[in-house]
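Before any further analysis, we paired sequence with structure tokens, yielding the entry below:
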Amino acid sequence: MPTSARRTANDLRVGETATVCCLKDPEMALKLLEMGCIPGTQVRLAGRAPLGDPLMLVLGDEEYTLSLRVSEATTIQLKA
């Protein structure tokens, strides 16, 4: 992977945790911010549907769970 490429929430493996860096789609950003996906927040991939879409993310200290489409998860960039 090139050094300029960032991982997204869709790149996480089940059980893996990372920190949100930024949201790359301005139209989707407002929706994700309202759901608590704020830069600096820890996210953990809790699971995926059998065909890989949607996926379930746990935000923060396991207080909030989101179910997102892969297309939405790919807009969440993670810190290296």
